[in-house]
Design a protein that fits this description.
eight-stranded mixed beta sheet; globular
Length: 194
């Protein structure tokens, strides 16, 4: 074995057989979810790669529309995923993804309030790609979905925000103060961004 092979990070089990490192797989899944979100109807806004001050990480997508505001985190976990309330395990190993998603959504909600001058509730959503997802019980404060179901879930989410409120929240989200350092753009269907 060469020194480079010894120093290289080990890929996840799922991607080892394909020779792809786990970060490449997760980036591909983030791109897939971004493309799916482009299918949202008029009146919805999607902001990509929003910094979460609480953890120093990025929220993959902030979605704002009649159904509310959602901090969407994408997780390509590979193996057997079990969800029991606030407990998420991957191949039997506990994961902190749900707790992290809640903290990040709260962080974005505070930033939106500071940028827009009004409180904004932001629901954390974790989109999971895995070999098998077993949901024993869903957590009350985080929604866990597969990539193929997020669009339908958002479209059928009961309306809670008026058109004017959606536009105001989207304007706040577009302000640099709401997500300084964001690397990617956003797209919108319907209302204009300022």
């Amino acid at each position: 074995m060469r020194l480079g092979e010894l120093l290289a990070p080990a890929p996840s089990r799922r991607w080892r057989r394909f020779g792809l490192p786990a970060p490449v797989a997760e980036a591909a899944t983030r791109g897939e979810v971004a493309e799916i979100l482009r299918g949202l109807p008029e009146g919805w806004f999607v902001f990509n790669e929003i910094p979460a001050a609480a953890s120093g990480s990025m929220i993959d997508h902030l979605v704002v529309g009649p159904g509310g505001a959602f901090a969407v985190t994408v997780a390509d976990l590979g193996g057997q995923v079990r969800l029991a309330g606030r407990s998420l395990t991957v191949d039997g190993v506990a994961s902190a993804r749900l707790s992290k998603a809640v903290l990040e959504a709260r962080s974005v909600a505070r930033a939106l309030e500071a940028a827009g001058g009004r409180p904004v509730g932001v629901r954390p959503v974790v989109v999971v790609r895995c070999a098998d997802l077993s949901i024993v019980s869903a957590p009350p404060d985080v929604t866990v979905l597969r990539p193929g179901s997020i669009l339908r879930w958002l479209r059928t989410h009961p309306p809670v925000l008026s058109r004017a409120t959606v536009a105001a929240v989207a304007r706040a989200a577009a302000r640099p103060a709401a997500h300084a350092g964001s690397r990617s753009g956003s797209h919108a269907r319907g209302a204009s961004q300022q």
